[in-house]
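Reproducibility note. Readers wishing to regenerate the assembly model reported in the main text can use the exact inputs given here. Chain order matters: entities are listed in the order in which they were concatenated for prediction.
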Amino acid sequence: MLASQRRSRILEEIRRTGAVRVSALVERLGVSDMTIRRDLEVLAQEGELRKVHGGAVLPGGRSTEEPGFAAKSNRQNAEKQAIAAEALRMVEPGMAVGMSGGTTTWTFARLLRDVPDITVVTNSVQVADLFSREPRSDQTVVLTGGIRTPSEALVGPFAVSAIRSVNLDIMFMGVHGMDLRNGFTTPNLVEAETDRAFVEASRRFVVLADHTKYGVLGISTIAPLDAADVLITDSGLVEEHRASLRERVGELVLVEAAGGEQSDEPGSSRA
Amino acid sequence: MLASQRRSRILEEIRRTGAVRVSALVERLGVSDMTIRRDLEVLAQEGELRKVHGGAVLPGGRSTEEPGFAAKSNRQNAEKQAIAAEALRMVEPGMAVGMSGGTTTWTFARLLRDVPDITVVTNSVQVADLFSREPRSDQTVVLTGGIRTPSEALVGPFAVSAIRSVNLDIMFMGVHGMDLRNGFTTPNLVEAETDRAFVEASRRFVVLADHTKYGVLGISTIAPLDAADVLITDSGLVEEHRASLRERVGELVLVEAAGGEQSDEPGSSRA
DNA sequence: GGAAAGGATCGCACATTATCGCACCCGAAT
DNA sequence: ATTCGGGTGCGATAATGTGCGATCCTTTCC
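Running the prediction on these inputs yields the following structure tokens for the assembly.
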């Protein structure tokens, strides 16, 4: 059995019963306890479950934990993980990193916690929450001020003013839609304003967007496509769209969504 | 059964009935009384419940509202409730209200949610959380930016700059200590800075502090006693201290803590 | 084509830590 | 004063994580 299959089984089990114990999984899946523990570690890192003594439970506990709840955040989760992993390669110790809100950046923020000596500026309460859960003395997390939107982002003049006063080495932004004519868009007018401020405040502007965002149109434009220095998306994007984007954005990075929920092809040679 | 499952069951039970007994849980969950006690201890530490003789009851208000910082918030809870109720009388619809962090202001914020048409400016993530749980279109809640302290307050230049740019009708502040010589103090240097900015930004400065704060000295002074237009405290304060304070602060308001220890009645004392 | 190098995954042994129940004594309520 | 619940100390048991070696698959080189 493949590791990703095994992990799917674990998720299936925990979603059905609400909790799993290591010893039960050892018996059921026929692997050692260490393997199970490592699986749980990985799944916990992805936010799919929460490790507890003796096993794991669903993460549903804290309301501020996961943005938008499971329905939304699990969509394209494998893609988001892969995108986040790729984005992580662009961050180096000592950097000043900006992050907007959204589930993709939230996934990315989970990985970012392990990077030493960085300064994070964000207008997302959830992202700030992630870092403040286990504070590290070598990391500084700045939450911009402002008024909360339903998606828990801070917007408005306070946010804009705070963002304008910083200089970021790199800015990571999740968007709701990307389109040739309208660029990167969001359904929230005031969020677009803060997002624009973020773009202006950063030396390097990186957009994180899975392939389903292509062609989606939010009411407000954050920036044209060519404003992005890098766009990281996944290989689910069809060739035609890849070409379009490649012409416009600074650099287009495609990542392979590793070990999705179901899409495993054992022994297939690389294309 | 996993320990965390067991604790979930306990919470479920207590939220359904309002109270649990140790003996009942022993039977229902099939573990020893000591295990139950230890569970209750953990949950009480998290602020999910309050231990009483024979079992546990729900803490002050809705337990789901209480964030993780609640271990300390139950101390002097009755006093805080009474102080908060008194402070509420000073707020009128249409006002711009400032609030610092701390458990006393948090208690106050819960009452403030019912006041129509107000603007709240706070550097406390928890206070902002309270309002964003059920957003009202006639209320605006501004979170100042900044870096999080362990007590979940936002501090630093971003916070100060945001606070300086607003004008508040009234400012409510919880303090860590009050002392004749050193005035209102806090153990956190940078928090004092934002607190001072709050004082300067407001027309009317109200301090909320239960009687145990008297004589306590934090490392950093926020303001001298006479900077307070109003000081609301409880009648646990001895006469000698009352007199001292009355000389210095603009107005000293003493409230009676209802019911001594118990305070888990939703429809609380005054209107 | 095949062998060697590289990388990832998994299992085992070990030291460490957390959990639980029991016995015992203390404190609170009636 | 008596009874019931509460807390502390201890030992037994289970769970955890780290380091290491074995195995499998992929890649690379000849």
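We highlight two features of this model. Confidence is low (pLDDT under 50) at residues 61-74, 259-271 of chain B. The interface with chain A takes residues 2-5, 8, 64, 125, 128-129, 132, 135, 140-148, 150, 152, 154, 156, 158-159, 161-162, 165 of chain B (CB under 8 Å).
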